[in-house]
Amino acid sequence: MEKINVNGIQLAYERRGKGTPLVLLHGFPLDHQVWDEIVPLLEGTFDLIIPDLRGFGESTTVDSFYTLEDYASDIAGLLDHLGIQKAAIAGHSMGGYIALAFVRLFPERVSGLGLVASQVVADTDERKQGRYKSAAEVAEHGIGSVVEMMTPKFTPDERLQSYARQSMERQQPAAYIGALKAMAERVDSTPLLSSLNFPVVIVHGDADALVPIDRAREVKTALPQAHLVEISGAGHMPMMEDKEKTAEALRQLA
Question: Three-state secondary structure along 164-206?
Answer without folding.
Answer: HHHHHHCCCHHHHHHHHHHHHCCCCCHHHHHHCCCCEEEEEEC
